[in-house]
TrEMBL record:
The active site is at residues 36, 177. Catalyzes the reversible epimerization of D-ribulose 5-phosphate to D-xylulose 5-phosphate. Its EC number is 5.1.3.1. It comes from Candidatus Fusicatenibacter merdavium. One of its GO terms (molecular function) is metal ion binding. Substrate binds at residues 9, 67, 143-146, 177-179, 199-200. The keyword rRNA processing does not apply. It catalyses: D-ribulose 5-phosphate = D-xylulose 5-phosphate. Belongs to the ribulose-phosphate 3-epimerase family. This is Ribulose-phosphate 3-epimerase. It holds the Pfam family Ribul_P_3_epim.
Length: 227
């Protein structure tokens, strides 16, 4: 799988036509799908959970990148495995034993991600870098789609990239999530992000056209091998 990817967030999809919209994403050449699970406790809102993931898994071969915005995610790892998640991203702020929980996720055969909120410094991730496949630098406060990108994110992405390189973990992917659109995508790619999450900028308007726009920005990075 290529290192730079668009991961469309279905939070912004039309749920009345979800299957059809996921097929469009697949046909447009995407390989990842970002699935935002919210519990109403870690974040104010509630989105959807296992039954929805299980149902779309039956129709899709996309890589399911499941972003758990839930308190104490260790309670649900087995159940997300059963409904078809490929990667579970948990929040550093929501998990009391991060290293242990990441070990459990790997033990169940899924890949691991750790997310941090805009106000959380990247150094909280330092001690778990050898246990993660991806880090997620939030570029908005989690909980809702359609928010404005926080410009400070670029500096955090650069800092994260430097920390991964300095600790011998350069292969760990960096994901960015929130407010990414035609105007902000170049800045985050240049700062070191690999996996670009986008909700409203993919599902608002013509999905195929929006995906082509993102791919035009992302693809050149797959052709480079300087990072
Ligand atoms: C926000 C979610 C995001 C959201 C992004 O809490 O984690 O994945 O869907 O939506 P946009 O791209 O609209 O900011
Ligand atoms: Zn997300």
């Amino acid at each position: 799988m290529q290192r730079y990817q668009l991961s469309p967030s279905i939070l912004a999809a039309d749920f009345n036509r979800l299957g059809e919209q996921i097929r469009k994403i697949e046909q447009a050449g995407c390989q990842w799908l970002h699935i935002d699970v919210m519990d109403g406790t870690f974040v104010p809102s509630i989105s959807f959970g296992m039954p929805l993931i299980k149902s779309i898994r039956e129709e899709s071969t996309l890589y399911f990148d499941v972003h758990l915005m839930i308190q104490d995610p260790e309670r649900y790892i087995q159940r997300f495995k059963e409904c078809g998640a490929d990667m579970l991203t948990i929040h550093a702020e929501a998990c009391s034993d991060l290293a242990f929980t990441l070990g459990v996720i790997h033990g169940k055969g899924m890949q691991t991600g750790v997310a941090i909120n805009p106000s959380t410094p990247v150094n909280v991730l330092e001690r778990v870098l050898d246990k993660v496949d991806m880090v997620l630098i939030m570029s908005v406060n989690p909980g809702f789609g359609g928010q404005k990108y926080i410009p400070e994110t670029a500096r955090k992405l650069q800092e994260m990239r430097r920390m991964l390189d300095a600790t011998g973990n350069s292969e760990v992917l960096i994901q960015v999530d929130g407010g990414i659109n035609e105007k902000t995508v170049d800045e985050v790619l240049e700062a070191g992000a690999n996996i670009i999450v986008a909700g409203s900028a993919v599902f608002g308007g013509d999905i195929e056209k929006n995906i082509r726009m993102f791919q035009d920005h992302i693809d050149p990075y797959n052709s480079r091998d300087d990072r």
